[in-house]
Amino acid sequence: MRRIICFIMMVITCLSLAACSGSNVEKVEEKALNAIAGYSSGKEFMIKGWLMPNTNTYESYKLVKELGITHVMIDDGTGVAFGTEQFENVMGYMHELGVNGVFTLGNADREASPYDGMDQDFRRYPAIKGINYFDEPRGSEQNRQISEMISAHEKKYGNELFAYTNLFPYSVYNEGYDDYVKNFCDEVIAKINGRKILAMDVYPYYSGDKLIESTWLAGLETIGKHARDYGAEMQIWIQSMENLSLGNNSLRKPIREEYAHQIYSALAFGAKGYGYFTLGSGLAAGWGEALIKRDGTASESYWWAKDINEEVCSFQDIYLSFNYEKTLAVDGDEAENQCINFLYMDKRPTLDKVSNISAAEDALIGQFDNGGQKAYIITNFAEPMLGKKNTVKMTFENANAVVVYADGQRNVYRLIDGKAVFNLNIGEGVFAIPLNV
Q1: What is the pLDDT of residues 227-259, one digit of tens each?
Q2: For residue 98, with 0-12 CB atoms within 10 Å meaning exposed, 13-18 middle and 19 or more buried, which class applies?
């Protein structure tokens, strides 16, 4: 089942067609597609799953592959023990199917030492491509340990394994979050010579009267800014299940549109990958059913995730060739989302080569650049539980066409005076590249 999005309002399409002949329309499309072909990156999103499937069978990892998961997080404490026969089997399944692994050395929840597993030689397993040195480190002492481990591994492996790190969300530190992230970047990220990934987990959807975590976007903004400035890849974890045992902070099961809502919101802040919390079921008491059920079969939410993975991967090649610059949150004419109030460590930015921006509901617009060519992620940030669609209007400077990726499809539209109107469904986003061709 596919989401249906109307990209450009019919009135603009009609004006465009009336202004030029059919052959000219075809020439504009051809020129536009030729222009963006030069931005092919050959890269793909890193799409992760936390918690290995419970059954750990070949069939369950085949489901993982078909879901579009590129990397599974491997953790001794919540998966299969390193070096056991079952572990060897799982590594063989993953390697055969082309599913990669990221091995977690330390985890705050189970108070594991960050040095656990350092004596292992991960080159024994071709499926393991990276190391998650510590999940949710708490400060300078753990930062020092993580930096020591990465340095030791760089001497041992060179650039064979990438360095992955996942930080706490904004709500743990609040006003001190920028210092927390910057200190980590100074003490760890800046010292990494190879590929480095800076991730954050945030689960924004609550049960009861509190619909959404108010500091969600502030966290994305902080991670996105520092990942950009320190040359790291920004990634996030999204909420894909419920936990109703947390009192006032209990998490509800996200609806289908909220998967897209979380991913497109992160892309608007420059994310180059995302992960599902969780892939396998049975995390702990209170947590609900994950993408793959305990019996190793697909849950309902598995198909939601598969759908959105296919959609965003349709533009990964082009999107990942652009560099993130900044994000503008647009206050809707008809509503305001409390998350926007916590944004902007500095001041609200002005987007380049765009004017006359408006939205019916709250929206996020992320700006990207490749050699002077701008591109934009445009996200309907209205809370999906309220069931609101959105209309975003923008005028692109010196542009007579726009390439739009949405709903897994690519379309080229002729613009009159650079004016475009995007009609976005609940929780949805688009990737737009305005051109002068």
Answers
A1: 999 999 999 999 999 998 888 889 999 999 999
A2: exposed
Residues 371 and 296 in one domain: no
Q: Are residues 280 and 356 in the same domain?
A: no
Contact at 8 Å (CB) between 9 and 421?
Answer: yes
Question: Do 354 and 229 share a structural domain?
Answer: no
Looking at the structure, do residues 286 and 345 belong to the same domain, yes or no?
no
Shared domain for 292 and 222, answered yes or no, is yes
pLDDT tens string 81-137: 888 899 999 999 999 999 999 999 877 665 556 566 778 899 999 999 999 998 999
Q: In the chain, how many domains are there? A: 2
DSSP-based three-state secondary structure for 390: strand
Q: What number of residues does the chain have?
A: 437
**DSSP 8-state code for residue 281:** S
Using N-to-C axis directions, what is the helix angle for 300-313 and 58-67, rounded to 10°? 50
Write out the two tokens for 168: 């706490």
| CA proximity to 385, closest of 201, 203, 212 | 212
At CB < 8 A and 24+ separation, what contacts does 140-147 make?
Answer: 140/183, 140/187, 142/106, 142/114, 143/183, 143/184, 143/187, 143/188, 144/187, 145/114, 145/115, 146/114, 146/188, 147/187, 147/188, 147/191
Last residue of a domain, which of 317, 352, 379?
317
Contact (Cβ atoms closer than 8 angstroms) between residue 227 and residue 236: no
Q: Among 317, 343, 367, which residue terminates a domain?
A: 317
Query: At 80, which amino acid appears?
Result: V
Residue 165 Rama label (left phi>0; alpha psi -120 to 50; beta): beta
CATH number of the CATH domain containing 412: 2.60.220
Question: Is the same domain home to 182 and 56?
Answer: yes
Q: How many CB atoms lie within 10 A of CB 295?
A: 10
Full residue range of the structural domain in which residue 284 is found: 46-317
Q: b/e per residue, 183-209, with b = 16+ CB within 10 A?
A: ebbebbbebbeeebbbbbbbbbbbbee
Task: Give the whole-angstrom CA distance, residue 56 versus residue 49.
Answer: 14
Tokens (6 digits) for 238: 């999204």
**Same domain for 284 and 156:** yes
